[in-house]
Amino acid sequence: MYKIFHGFHLVEAYQDLKKAKRLAKNQTVARCIKLTVAITLSLILWFLPIDTFGIEGLTIIEQRLISIFIFATLMWVFEAVPAWTTSVLIVVLLLLTVSDSSLWFLTQGISTEELGQTVKYKSIMHCFADPIIMLFIGGFILAIAATKSGLDVLLARVMLRPFGTQSHYVLLGFILVTAAFSMFLSNTATAAMMLTFLTPVLKALPADGKGKIGLAMAIPVAANVGGMGTPIGTPPNAIALKYLNDPEGLNLNIGFGEWMSFMLPYTIVVLFIAWFILLRLFPFKQKNIELQIEGEAKKDWRSIVVYITFAITVILWMFDKVTGVNSNVVAMIPVAVFCITGVITKRDLEEISWSVLWMVAGGFALGVALQETGLAKHMIEAIPFNTWPPVLMIVGSGLICYAMANFISHTATAALLVPILAIAGSSMRENLSSLGGVETLLIGVAIGSSLAMILPISTPPNALAHATGMIQQKDMEKVGIIMGIIGLILGYTMLIILGSNNLL
């Protein structure tokens, strides 16, 4: 979905670099080894005697699901193939091996009791059209329309103007504006766009000054942190929200506006802390900076439709509990309006990030399989979650998530951890209540994912900013570690206080 966005050349260069690394001769052997390890370990789990697992009542279907889950984990960790490719493969494996439409030779001659409960194939396929997927599609459509109409340039210029020309306030402006965009646009597209606006500024700053490092670092930090403010800001948010609101699970009915009511203030506080940290680590030598953002907003009738629809959609999202219109339903309004009016064309639909949607859907499919096969129930019975200290459960899960997300896709991390933590949290709701409940557990994973930005490979915005040549890896690591520690402490403190007082 990045071709029409400002700074697409940055995204294209980043993708070309990733592809070149995968295809490099010295990487081919490594990829083959990783694939071999993932497949071998999964097959071992597939064919092990069922008693080996030590889970009473474990069925063949559940054993297959354990094998597939481990395969997904290893493939996402190793990244031998793109993460979204693994996600699609997982869905196909689930359909062919554990669904009620499995391959015939995997079910023939096995008693129903021994085989276990299969997953409805429709349930797995429905994951591609889950309401959360529709929410993301609405967000992508809004982003594309905003770029076509020039609304993004207009907003960037208007929003940056109040910060004047003093260097430290310009830095704050880029942090807050980038964060605001990343709440509704892809953080990759946001980072590419804002880095494009920033390029002439970086060239004008003294070559020996540290200020340009701070400005370049501000973009990925703000893009990663800003996404926490809304459910569509980043996929881990949406994954956590799905399990929190699942009618057959936790059923907490947290709305779009409700999410923003507690996550937006937290996000703003973290952004101001980031501003302070960047100023201290990378002080400016030049006291004033002149900004020149090129491009104009269009004024034809279709652009007016975009402006009005954008505003109405955001307002309806923020007040979904007041209007009674679910945020997933609201997301379809811009889709309908823009398609009918010709703002969005068939070509534009091809620009949607389908790889992101398939990635999320694959995680949902794993969660559905865990529930419908009964493996989730058996895990709760086999693992004494209730005896675990609540602090260990909550803080430990956050740290594990943060560590994983620095090295693999944030979405993959959430897709692996959230379904398991939702199961664990359901079994120990009373124990967790003093620390904010299951909400703290699952939202903590979303926060941990977004704060993982130590390395250039941690997130696409990090990679794009690192590619400018202004940032050394040691600088990124220093900022990433500080932001991770502060962000996690503040995040869990907020969630525990709000949750224990029934304010979530």
What's this model, at a glance?
It is built from 26 helices and no strands. The protein has 504 residues and is an all-alpha fold.
Protein model, in words:
With about 500 residues, the chain is mostly helical. Among the domains are: about 20-120 and about 360-380, no CATH class; about 130-355, no CATH class. The protein contains 26 helices and no strands. α9 runs antiparallel to α10 (about 185-205). The longest helix is centred in the C-terminal third of the chain and has 28 residues, at about 475-500. The radius of gyration is 23 Å and the shape is globular.
- What class, by secondary structure content? mainly alpha
Please trace the helix and strand order, writing H or E for each element. HHHHHHHHHHHHHHHHHHHHHHHHHH
Tally of individual helices: 26
What proportion of the residues is helical, as a percent range?
A: 55-70%
Largest sheet properties: none
Using only C-alpha atoms, the radius of gyration works out to 23 Å
Low-confidence stretches: none
Q: What average pLDDT do the residues reach?
A: 86
> Hey, roughly how much beta strand do the residues contain?
under 5%
Shape: globular
Q: Whole-Å distance between the termini?
A: 34 Å
The count of strands amounts to 0
GO molecular function: phosphate transmembrane transporter activity
Main location: membrane
Membrane topology: Multi-pass membrane protein
GO cellular component, one term: plasma membrane
